[in-house]
Design a protein that fits this description.
637 residues; mainly beta; 9-stranded antiparallel sheet; 11% helix; globular; binds MU-OXO-diiron; binds calcium ion
Length: 637
């Protein structure tokens, strides 16, 4: 997230304790845990041992030369690597007979935008075609729009056509790509090419489908929603589908002058957060359509292999400001879906499917994510934690407490988690599951309000007040991924200068970074981290030394973070997709040239950046980038 949704992020005023007054660094917490396994994990994470963390195959180590901290409006990769801009905002996705070219003055119509790549790419996944490392589909999220850049004249005047174009620039893209020679190209036309926008019908699956709180005048059955929005992180399921999180959806709605307690808990504001869709599309006026916000905040599932498939909102996974969702597989083949919500003082969830994953891909698992149990995490100060079930009728989740049925528990997952005493986190962003060591990692990007007057104090899992650097927390389930208890520790507290002095600390070492966001474990067990410090942060404090946002690789065997890439001015680095052979890495550069106010000036659109085109008077464009080694070898090693 780049936009300032500070109001919506401070909507958790629930009184459930934010664990246990424990200050000080997480290593101490871990040592206090005392369990032998925790100590083994500590050794693995902090002393360069190989105990608990995944290790690379023998002989494989980080073998690229680190790049220096990033300055200036350019993308820098290590010596011997080549980065190619593949799919920027506005290029046609490749629908046959409909290939509108991008107009650099932003004069494409809404109808043309609906056939072009959307704005502000975030999550991305590569789906091989017939198992290929050189030919496949990319599914891409388009998180939000900068309406100062999206339209001629920016927001002035604000029209129904501009709302339509903003809605068409949101959603998802599916494009077909192929490596030709040494360069990846988008294939156009392609029978796979697809845009999903605010006009695309979605089915609703799971216990909240058809619920009274999901019904609207346009959809009296409560089972079909038009569109998805603010899609942030993404992942790929073992059965071949794409999962995408609807993150800051509340920002698109305008609410009543006096929002209800429920609406306040979700951050609904009378005038919204600046999208102004409600001015020309009454669906986003929650005064007129109070149930419409209930139809967003879900994990959505798309089968990219079938351009005619209807995507589904999976309500069994709970409603939240979902960053994304990631699947682990139990030993008996059930799906465990981890997710967090990137909002200050919100929660981390996991869903355990009732049924095992079936052979046969997307079709065979069409309803897998509709049946199962949702849990929310409580991190205890002793280095242990519990998964608390969100089940209607259990514990405090009664009809008298406002949860008439399971659908209502899922629609009001935040309130249910408040009552269960879940731990209020420092903005959970991406998760990465190590299938070998079975540790689950989660970036906690920052929380400037932690410990401020009137806000929750520090706790063991969120140990820093005014946490503007973030951390990576991780946990290991008891038994299998469906375990109800876990041990946890921090892989790293980001931005700690001590991390740079490997010998002094004898533990985590390497290059400094702040605000970890994107996260992925590659096929060989390297952990990749991408950062999202805001434009207003970048020149302050340690960020002056850290420079532009970046991407790093973490070698668990050595405990080393090494800077792999630095990005153009005021962008974030996001989206991580490797080909199965790890010889191509796809990433997204999001919001290059973001202005501190997050609405660019259409009179000088390239004030901070005009990456990647560098056209005089042009506009910066979010874009998918393909990264290869010049010799074609595996990335990073
Ligand atoms: Fe869209 Fe939490 O980043
Ligand atoms: Ca973002
Ligand atoms: Ca972020
Ligand atoms: Ca993010």
């Amino acid at each position: 997230m780049a936009k300032d949704f500070s109001g919506m992020e401070d909507s958790n005023r629930s009184s459930n304790p934010s664990i246990h007054q424990q200050s000080g660094p997480s290593r101490r917490v871990l040592l206090q845990g005392g369990a032998a396994a925790a100590l083994a994990a500590l050794a693995g994470a902090f002393s360069g041992g190989l105990t608990a963390c995944a290790s690379l195959p023998t002989g494989e180590r980080l073998a690229f030369k680190r790049v220096p901290p990033g300055q200036g409006d350019r993308l820098v990769v290590p010596e011997g690597y080549v980065a190619t801009v593949l799919a920027p905002w506005g290029d046609p996705v490749g629908v046959a007979g409909a290939l509108p070219a991008f107009r650099h003055d932003a004069s494409n119509s809404a109808a043309e935008q609906a056939l072009q790549l959307g704005m502000h790419h975030d999550g991305i996944e590569y789906f091989p075609l017939v198992g290929s490392n050189t030919h496949g589909l990319l599914a891409i999220n388009h998180e939000y729009t900068d309406d100062g850049l999206l339209h001629v004249g920016g927001l002035q005047p604000w029209t129904a056509e501009k709302v339509k174009k903003s809605q068409a620039a949101h959603g998802l893209s599916v494009i077909e790509v192929e490596l030709k020679g040494a360069t990846w190209q988008v294939l156009r036309p392609s029978r796979h090419a697809r845009r999903v926008t605010l006009d695309t019908p979605f089915d609703v699956g799971g216990p909240a489908a058809g619920h009274a709180l999901m019904r609207t005048a346009a959809d009296p059955a409560g089972r079909r929603v038009l569109g998805t929005l603010n899609n942030c992180a993404a992942s790929q399921t073992p059965w071949g589908t794409y999962l995408s999180g609807e993150e800051n959806w509340i920002g698109y709605f305008a609410g009543p002058d006096k929002p209800s307690e429920h609406e306040q808990r979700w951050g609904l504001r009378p005038k919204g957060y600046g999208y102004r869709w409600h001015e020309h599309d009454e669906r986003f006026d929650a005064r007129r359509h109070p149930n419409e916000p209930h139809r967003f905040g879900w994990i959505v599932e798309l089968d990219p292999s079938d351009p005619d498939s209807t995507p589904v909102k999976r309500t069994a996974l709970g409603r939240a400001a979902h960053e994304g969702a990631w699947v682990a597989v139990t030993r008996d083949q059930r799906a465990v879906v981890y997710s967090g919500e990137d909002s200050r003082f919100e929660y981390i969830y996991k869903f355990v499917s009732r049924d095992p994953i079936r052979p046969g891909g997307a079709r065979a698992n069409r309803t897998l994510l509709d049946h199962g149990t949702l849990y929310v995490a409580r991190f205890d100060a002793d280095g242990r934690g519990r998964w608390l079930p969100l089940l209607q009728g259990q514990g405090p989740l009664t009809a008298a407490a406002g949860f008439a049925d399971q659908g209502e528990v899922l629609i009001k997952a935040r309130q249910a988690s408040d009552l269960l005493g879940a731990t209020k986190m420092d903005r959970p962003e991406w998760l990465a599951i190590d299938p070998r060591s079975r540790w689950v990692h989660c970036t906690l990007t920052n929380n400037s309000q932690r410990g401020s007057p009137g806000y929750p104090d520090t706790d063991a899992a969120n140990p820093r007040a005014n946490n503007n650097m973030g951390s990576i927390i991780r946990w290991l389930e008891d038994g299998d991924f469906d375990g109800l208890g876990f041990q946890w520790n921090h892989l790293v507290l980001a931005g700690d200068p001590a991390n740079e002095r490997a010998e002094a600390r004898g533990n985590i070492n390497g290059d400094l970074f702040g605000c970890p966001d994107g996260l992925a474990m590659d096929p060989r067990g390297l952990l990749w981290v991408q950062t999202d410090a805001h434009a207003t942060q970048m020149s302050q404090g340690e960020f002056a030394r850290i420079g532009n946002n970046q991407m790093l690789a973490f070698d668990p065997a050595r405990g080393e973070f090494r800077r792999f890439l630095t990005a153009p001015t005021h962008c974030e680095v996001t989206g991580i997709a490797f080909t199965p052979d790890a010889r191509t890495l796809f990433i997204n550069i999001q919001h290059p040239g973001e202005s501190p106010g997050e609405r660019s000036d259409p009179a000088q659109p390239a004030r901070y950046s005009n990456w990647p085109d560098f056209r005089p008077g042009g506009r910066p464009r979010s874009a998918t980038v393909a990264i290869r080694r010049a010799d074609g070898g595996p990335i990073g090693t």
